From TrEMBL:
Keywords: Membrane, Transmembrane, Transmembrane helix. The chain crosses the membrane at residues 21-53, 73-93, 200-219, 250-277, 289-310, 316-339, 351-375. Its main location: membrane. This is Pheromone autoinducer 2 transporter. GO terms for cellular component: membrane. GO terms for biological process: transmembrane transport. It comes from Fuerstiella marisgermanici.
Length: 396
């Protein structure tokens, strides 16, 4: 009669060991999948972010448009597509005309930088270590060494060497004229499109983000409840609440970023246009897009604006620098706190450190998703660990 009790006693540790082994296997599989396909995880996260935007935008329109929820999602999606295609057509045609003159302005900027580097070696050391500008500068010391070596050669050898090196120098000069955009401004544009330049390419990743977000927004409860049913019955209601709170956090983050992008972009367009900087509208638009990535995007936009302002003189450079600094201060300490309030308040040191870590590990894509990912992780930590496990209160 005691045998069944003994079997039941032994079966409990066995079930516990089996559950532990299953959980460990699942964690190991998830980590291995992330290591192998981390780019796709970040792209899918951006798709979720886009889905949150569509869902909350369609929900907000319920007071204005007396339509069904799917119809409101379709209206928001159509509006976004019209704005995107219209912007590409308008600015694409304008960029086609302006990029022909961009080489001239960037070459003048390069001459200014190289002159400063020749006069002040310390300036060259600082500029060469600066992102974008370091690629813009050519080697200064190596050219001096080559010239010294060439002057010490015999006359015949020197003339032969000059004749031999004339073709490459002409190639480099022509390449500088035709390739300056791809070397400097192109680097800045790569920062914009670097969000999507992963293994699958820009077009495929953009489609992935679009359709993942669209399908999530059409039936958000279905996907949310699909995650909820994976938890034990007593924890399902709390899991549903936590997921809803995480969605609200991402929505407030998006509102804050959108407001920052709008204010910074329009302010940059006005500043650069009034300062007479070439391609001011295009640079202002790029500034607004780059503001999607906090801190890093603003720095890249500032460097691009300064490069285009260099040929206009030191006064224009000073105006651009001070103007961008004011825009950054307004965006960081006025716009973002007013919009995001305390729900997505991220400590600056924590955000910068996390962005640096993600940038080193995963490149620009990692730095781009660092801020919303940190906001979501902070919310989950507060709700799941601080409140549920420790029994504490949210002191954000």
């Amino acid at each position: 009669m005691t045998q069944p009790e003994s079997d039941e006693t032994f079966s409990q540790p066995a079930r516990l060991s089996g559950a532990t082994l299953l959980a460990a296997t699942g964690i190991f599989a998830a980590v291995a999948a992330f290591v192998v396909a981390w780019e796709m995880f970040f792209i899918l996260f951006l798709g979720i972010l886009f889905g949150v935007f569509l869902t909350k935008s369609a929900g907000s329109l319920s007071r204005v448009l007396p339509l069904s929820y799917p119809a409101r999602v379709g209206a928001v999606t159509t509006l976004l597509l019209v704005l995107a295609i219209g912007s590409l057509l308008i600015f694409g045609v304008r960029a086609g005309h302006q990029l022909a003159d961009a080489d001239k302005h960037l070459l003048a900027a390069q001459e200014k930088l190289e002159q400063a580097a020749a006069d002040y070696p310390a300036v060259y050391s600082v500029l060469s270590s600066t992102p974008l500008i370091g690629r813009f500068l050519g080697p200064s010391e190596s050219k001096t060494d080559d010239e010294a070596d060439a002057s010490s050669q015999p006359e015949d050898t020197k003339s032969a060497a000059d004749a031999k090196s004339s073709a490459p120098s002409q190639t480099e000069t022509s390449g500088l004229t035709s390739g300056t955009i791809s070397k400097v401004a192109g680097t800045g544009l790569q920062a914009v499109f670097g969000l999507f330049q992963t293994s699958f390419g820009l077009a495929v990743n953009s489609l992935l983000i679009f359709f993942v977000g669209l399908f999530l927004s059409l039936a958000p409860e279905t996907y949310r409840d699909g995650v909820v049913v994976l938890f034990p019955q007593p924890r399902r209601e709390r899991t549903r609440d936590v997921l809803n709170i995480a969605g609200e956090t991402l929505w407030h983050w998006l509102i804050g970023r959108g407001g920052s992008m709008l204010v910074t972009g329009l302010g940059a367009v006005a500043l650069l246009t009034l300062a007479g900087v070439p391609m001011g509208a295009m640079l202002g638009l790029a500034t607004g897009v780059l503001t999607f990535v906090p801190n890093i995007g603003s720095l890249v936009a500032l460097i691009l604006a300064i490069l285009f302002a260099l040929p206009m003189g030191q006064g224009t450079v000073a105006i651009v620098f001070v103007g961008y600094l004011v825009l950054q201060l307004v965006e960081s300490y006025v716009i973002t706190p007013l919009i995001q309030q305390q729900q997505v308040s991220l400590p600056p040191a924590l955000l910068i450190s996390f962005q640096a870590l993600m940038g080193v590990l995963f490149g620009f894509l990692g730095a781009a998703v660092a801020s919303p990912l940190l906001a979501a992780c902070k919310t989950l930590t507060m709700e799941v660990y601080v409140k549920d496990v420790l029994g504490g209160e949210d002191e954000r």
